[in-house]
Design brief:
Number of domains: 1
CATH class: Mainly Beta
Number of helices: 0
Structural class: mainly beta
CATH topology: Immunoglobulin-like
Strand content: 35-45%
Number of strands: 11
Radius of gyration: 19 Å
């Protein structure tokens, strides 16, 4: 089953400020700017039929009920990272794991590499060590869909992303994320992936 055409759009939203109008002698009005946000939108394309340049891949067609899409928002705010995910078109009334990963998506599920970690685990990835594979050191966005196949999740970290150290993709997994030692951070096969472009 072929699903949609891969589309990714990135918007950089920066809150504006107002000036003092046309009167140069009038002081500018005080304003509060919203923190900058990166918004990524993608419609997943079946990996087996994805044309060159595709950035949102579907690896398991049984995970969706038609065209499936995602919107991911990342915002830096006073030393924190706030992330929001909304998905549509996934199988209804089902739980999925979702994490931000270290590498961009590709036609193969493993192309996205391991989970993005704020403090990288020194052991080979994936280690399953809950000291590193946990929702405070990684960005987990597990969701459960409703009757219409819509799901959403949010995460907030007490650290900021930097240009030299930030995630490159969103990966949706077949099951909810586990937390036990040895399997911490695992969530079944990768069913979909969307590259994050900054």
């Amino acid at each position: 089953m072929r699903v949609g055409v891969g589309v990714v759009a990135v918007l950089l939203l920066v809150g504006g400020c107002s000036g003092g109008g046309d009167d140069p002698d009038k002081p500018a009005a005080a304003t509060v700017s919203e923190p900058a946000a990166v918004v990524v939108k993608g419609t997943f394309t079946a990996a087996s039929a994805a044309p060159p340049g595709t950035t949102a891949f579907l690896y398991d067609p049984s995970a969706v009920k038609g065209p499936a899409s995602a919107v991911l928002t990342l915002r830096e705010d006073a030393g924190h990272t706030k992330v929001a995910l909304a998905v549509d078109g996934f199988m209804p009334n089902r739980s999925f794991g979702a994490h931000l990963h270290a590498k961009p998506c590709g036609p193969a599920p493993d192309d996205a590499g391991g989970h993005f970690q704020h403090q990288p685990d020194p052991a080979p990835s994936p280690s399953g060590d809950p000291q590193y594979a946990n929702p405070n050191n990684e960005i987990w966005l597990d969701f459960t869909t409703n009757d219409q196949g819509h799901g959403q999740a949010t995460a907030e970290q007490d650290w900021e992303l930097t240009p030299g150290h930030r995630p490159a993709s969103l990966v949706v997994h077949a099951t909810a994320t586990m937390t036990s030692p040895g399997v911490a951070g695992t969530a079944g096969p990768r069913v979909a992936c969307m590259t994050i472009t900054y």
